[in-house]
Please model this.
Amino acid sequence: MTLKRAFWVVGILGLIPFLWAVYVRFFVHPDASNLGSVVPWGLHVAQYIYFVGLSAGSFLLSSLVYVFGMKRFEPIGRLAVFTAIVTLLLALLTIGLDIGHIDRFWHVFVFVNPTSPMAWMIWLYTLYLVLLIAEFWFLMRSDLVIAGRVPGMRGWVSRVLSIGSRDTSEGRITRDMRWVRILATIGVPLAVMFHGGVGALFGVLASRPFWNSGMFPIIFLVSALASGGALLVVASAIFQQGWKAHRAMILDLGKIVLGLLLLDILFQISEALIGLYGSDPGFVASFELVVAGPYWYVFWFLQIGVGFVVPVILLATPFRRDPRAVILACGAVVIGFVGVRLNIVIPGLSPEEIRGITQSVTDPRMASSYFPSAWEWILSFGIGAVGLVLFALGDYFLPMTRHLPPTATQD
Amino acid sequence: MATSPVSRRDLFKRAGAGAVVGAAIAHTAVAEATAPVRKHHWGMVIDTRRCVGCEACVIACKIENKTPPGVFYTVVTKEPLAGSTTGKPVFMTKPCFHCENPPCIPVCPVNATYKRKTDGIVVVDYDRCIGCRYCLAACPYGARYADFGDEYDLLPMAGENVSPEYKQYRERVPGQSPIGNARKCQFCMHLQDEQGTYDREAGRWPACAKTCPGHAIIFGDLDDPESEVATILREHNAVRVKEELGTEPSVYYLL
Amino acid sequence: MEQDITRRRFLKTLSAVGGGAAGATVTAATAGVVRGAEGPSPGSAALERRYGREAGEWIASCCNACGGQCGIFAHVVEGKVVKIEPNPWNPNNYSNISTDFFDNFDPAIGVRDGSSICPKGNAAIFSLYDPDRVAMPRKRTNPEKGVDIDPGWQEISWNQAVEEIGAKLRTIRDAGHPEELLWWSEDHSFTHPQQDFCALYGTPNYSNHANLCDVARKASFKMVMGDERPLTDFVQSKYILLFGWNPTSAIKWVHLPRIITKALENGARMVVVDPNLSDTAAKAQEWVPIRPSTDGALALALGHVIVRDRLYDEAFVKDWAVGFNEYRRLVADATPKWAEEITSVPAKTIERIAHDLATTKPAVVDVWSGPGQHSNGVQGGRAIALLNALVGAMDRPGGMIIPDKRGSKWSQASPEKPIEAPRFDGLSDLPWGHSSGVYGRGFQRLLDGSGPYTPKAGMCVFQNLVMSGPGSTHVADALKKLEMFVVVDTSESETARLADYLIPGTHFLERYDVNSHWVTWSAVGLRQPVVGGESQASSKYDFRGGIFGQMAEYEFVAALGRELGLKDRDGNDFFSIGAISREPIVSLTAWYEEQLSNELKTGAPGKTLDEMKALPGAVWVDEKGTAYEKYAAALKSKLVLDADGTVWDKPADDASRKQVAIVVDGVLFEKPEADGGVAVGRIIADQAWFTDGDKLLDGPKLEGKKPKQIGYAIGGTDPRRGFFTPSGKVEFANAKFADKSDLTGTPVDPVPTYKPRDWQPDAEYPLYLINWKEASHTHTRSHNNPLLMAIQGSNPLRMNTATAQKLGLADGQEVVVESQYGSTRAVLAVTNAIHPEVVGAQHGFGHQAFGKVARGKGSAFGDLNRMAFDPISGQATHKEICVRVRKA
Ligand SMILES: Nc1nc2c(c(=O)[nH]1)N[C@H]1C(S)=C(S)[C@@H](COP(=O)(O)OP(=O)(O)OC[C@H]3O[C@@H](n4cnc5c(=O)[nH]c(N)nc54)[C@H](O)[C@@H]3O)O[C@H]1N2
Ligand SMILES: Nc1nc2c(c(=O)[nH]1)N[C@H]1C(S)=C(S)[C@@H](COP(=O)(O)OP(=O)(O)OC[C@H]3O[C@@H](n4cnc5c(=O)[nH]c(N)nc54)[C@H](O)[C@@H]3O)O[C@H]1N2
Ligand code: SF4
Ligand code: SF4
Ligand code: SF4
Ligand code: SF4
Ligand code: SF4
Ligand SMILES: [Mo]
Model:
């Protein structure tokens, strides 16, 4: 069984519990999560920022190709944009199922509140999504037209996606690529703003000392790049047999990821130092929860061990010359960052805002501890499965690598 | 400026990474131009010396507002003051503080929560709120609660659970507001009359204050110099929680 | 609307919101909310009329979520109670002295600054609509009984329940042994029909829960001042010393938190003696941690200092006390150093408290369950009560007030023939036993067969004997001995699980009652049903019906009485004949209403039931208010002294006047001395008085009638009402006490000598285990209420930090608590706020039955106790347990 096929199987099997979980959410038990009013954001919000981080990261890396013209990374260009789209869709799906009234999402565009970082984030990612799709379309357009000439399902899908476009001439392709470049260029600040905005969403809250710092947007960006880069390496390995086909590129990406990881840890340490020396009790409490709370292992094993130590060892030692090691390291980063995200959201909320409020009543919704319910886990993994299926569908139907001879490219 | 939901200073502070400051100011300016005059400034003085920690306020509020499990518009903390040598708990009931400068408001992506211009009460528009719970994260006082749709198990004879909040008399129906919304103390606003005033003698008074066995919750119009709350604030040294955040709560404590 | 003024009050509001007229809009009410069309606009006026404050009715009644009986208004909309609010006309919710109440009272609105109800009262709707309530009578099918054994309930009809229980009771009675029925009842809800039933059935064994509660305090105060339920005038006090009482949290009446915090605000100092830093101790300036049950020693040492330093109220002691010299001798050795050894309270602290207590006026000292629920509670409590006498705090403002007990008037039904059988629990063996009986002794006798006979049937109404009595396993084993055990309860309690028949009770919102006495002057509140009544159980009886169509407790008892055909002395079918009309009444409810009406009409209110309902707040309040120093009230002689020295029994214009005495040199003689007349009285304050020592009698022995004692000659010159003690004065000592022995055969000590309690810690079980009540719950009954469980969901075992360290135990850890009688698991709460030798927890948790919410939450410590009671008063000793604690 190839990796791709495994993908299909796992993805489709994962859809079943996902659909069940969605059904439960809307029709049976809207209260199936273990969230509460002390920790009102949990697994799904962590998952959401994880996915948007991946999206922003992979998009920004794609800009190396389409904005800065770094041909070395060309093979993953489309995959990177596609990854950015899929992870963004997953992020939206996650958050949509998390909020109380997804039916009212349009309120954000009608009842405009310019002081809300969340509103800005939503507006920006809406733009960003449109832009991503447009860019991706221009990237693939000519290939879709060609693929559309083949009869059958694939051809039909390609025809639909090419939206009536027929032209595969050089000139048209050149124009496509100009559009790509324009969109990608606009996309860079947009992605920076959008993901920085996610960081700001947390960072502006004076009520939450663990988040309340100017570093937050920056850390979000750097970590997005690191995790996004890592995800691209993994995606390339799976879909493009990257370790064989794009050895040099993978090794280069490994270096980038290492650099970003180190930068990220540097920021994290300085953030922690400022917080701890400032000895804001709220910050200290959150920090203690992270390193020595009930879920200490998430920090030490997942975040530090899997997400940092393992990849740094693999990427900084002679292993770094083996693309398989790099892929492994990047896989570790992708997994380890789940811990990073969890450890931002939950410990930031857990410490009491007023001493004693969580003890004042006996109610699970007022507990400062939080562990996701079975339902939340199922939904989370289900969303992961949706991701797998989307990737698999993309791989199956979309021209992820170029069909046309390289002469058709512009540079 | 005091009557605007968001002060300009605050706005700049919060505009954060992405805000287009000009647009934001324009928004506030419009809001100010159309702002009705403030008629009252409802607030509370909570005398912790009278509070016996019985939590009748918690229950009275739950019954008045028909809140579901997990939602408590006020809770009573029982912690010793930091540095206390006796270890004696200070009993403190903690409704929403109806901040003059409320951090819960600017963060709301859909303007669902806002401060009433006429009387300073911070409310949630259940029909507008999308249930993102950002305001829960933003309130520095843990005064907001998410309604996850939990239900109490009661005999059918108890009838349907209809909350009088905002005089909307909503039944609890799965998937419909207030399920899925942010909820909070609204000073039992539904007990106001047409003029927006309360009447203690007629029982139209916040439920927590009405039941308090210690007579520790003193409610009234902070703007009315004759009111009990204003008098107490004149005559005593009262404190507000986390003054350093600049939120300017409308709820004061006597220690 | 039940009464005028309330109606006025609400009408006023109604017009204010303009909601009275149909179609009126309420949009403007939320003007500030509405932002264009998209704001939270209010619902329609129609909705407001249906669910708003003006919808439905507000019915005045009284709470019974605990025994406090505070006034409430129940908001009933479409037949459902949607809210319970305080009743501002009922003094019980505001203050226990009348000036405080009337000063803030406006007849139109009640007390101006509003009144209160506690969390239990607020949450009572959830107990009314508790899905685990018992709806239909149930009959056991599983003969094996146990708290953890499924009784195999079978639901039966009300007819069948009454018939079968009645049949068994008839058999017992027909066999000539009605005394084989034991009856346990709550102590102030619908007790009269139960007592009438027992009297007419012929059993002397009616008992009620007071002996689980505070009969030790009752005995202590009765010994000292002749009154068993004096009330503390907190609000006027400047120094409040409490021993083992937690009134701001164990809110016995909801006025307590207010009057105590008000006193503190007025500058009073409060000192709380308690092994645990109770919530009341948290409000006090000073918490005095004490070794459990040693309070008597501390009180004597305080007395020692006060007497030694001559700080006591000499005038009061001289005029109004007896036995002071014996007391002085007793406390001479009770030095603070001596007490320090016993109590662990530093001698210096004792000196200081004694000085403050005696020099701050007015001061008051009170004691309740803490010291009381120990085997040495009566004499200890007596030593504490006497401190009030030392500082002159007797029935004076800011002191211990003797309440005016006039309320409704009940005269018990007289049986056809008097009951001759002795009480099963041998109540009369106790020197200061209380009419409520001695549960523990009864259970003991049931268990080991040592009683005067073998009871066959038991009826338990509104109590959870297994969990509330000391020694749960023993209580359960005793109850299992009964051939037929009937429990009338709203829930399937631990006790109900042992029943042969479980009869659904009513919630207090479904029934009537009359409540008085919890303030210092006469006030009577009415409880009335606010829900139910629509459905009637198919039954041969006619009654109103609670929300399940079930009988109220009094109706069930009356139905049983009818089933058995119980007749009174006049041969009337007591449970069918109207108390006023004297006519047969079909409806059980109407019959009871007439009983109540009669009690109210002939009692202090002088009003019928319907007149009571019409009063504001359905409460009658005596306008005379609190009287102080009632003992010092001057008495007017009923005898008339002629100018010539003849004494007559009636005024001159009464034709039937008789000469009753002649005066010779200020002394009354029945007839001239020469004719053999003896001195029978004296002239005091220009009046003729018959006397017996210092006692004033209401007249001479005329026509064989015994004269009644009406007062005392204080200081030989003033005729006064006096205290209701044998001497008419506060008794520091009473030599006659020694004539009676307690249950151990020891003569009752004439002075309150300190004696250690029976059960003492030892090497194996080194820790004292105590328990207490807090505001969140009522005894064992409120733990299926999810609202109350939300504010207090379990009862962790508190242990001092140092002790925990020594035992290697940590906060939050699960532990095993063991005594020689049993063991249980608990979660530890480590704190500095408890005495190092003591562990303790809130009482009432750890249910094995009851309901889904209650079951398995927290720990029950009843199994660790023995079935024990104090040998003087019969008080159950809930707080006398020794344990060890180890890791689970
Ligand atoms: N919320 C609530 N209120 C209630 C009740 C209820 O169930 N719930 N019950 C009502 C009834 S029936 C009653 S009788 C009253 C009783 O009211 P309280 O008399 O206050 O009853 P407890 O809380 O049992 O005990 C009082 C205190 O005695 C302390 N104590 C224990 N042992 C000792 C000792 O040896 N010495 C001293 N000095 N203190 C000791 C305990 O720590 C506790 O703080 O409360 C009434 N009020
Ligand atoms: N360890 C320990 N034991 C104690 C105490 C303590 O402090 N510690 N306190 C003692 C004191 S002070 C007292 S007064 C006693 C009280 O002891 P109990 O009088 O036994 O009171 P509860 O334990 O509340 O049990 C009341 C029972 O009546 C039922 N019930 C409630 N409402 C109604 C109703 O309206 N109608 C009917 N028919 N049934 C109803 C409840 O379901 C419950 O089963 O407990 C004593 N026991
Ligand atoms: S009801 Fe009053 S006394 Fe009781 S906890 Fe609340 S504020 Fe305190
Ligand atoms: S207390 Fe919290 S919820 Fe209330 S107004 Fe202030 S910030 Fe908003
Ligand atoms: S939960 Fe509702 S009120 Fe709170 S921020 Fe989100 S939309 Fe606004
Ligand atoms: S004012 Fe009303 S809503 Fe606010 S805590 Fe009190 S009872 Fe609840
Ligand atoms: S003290 Fe509380 S529970 Fe007891 S009667 Fe009064 S209001 Fe009801
Ligand atoms: Mo009691």
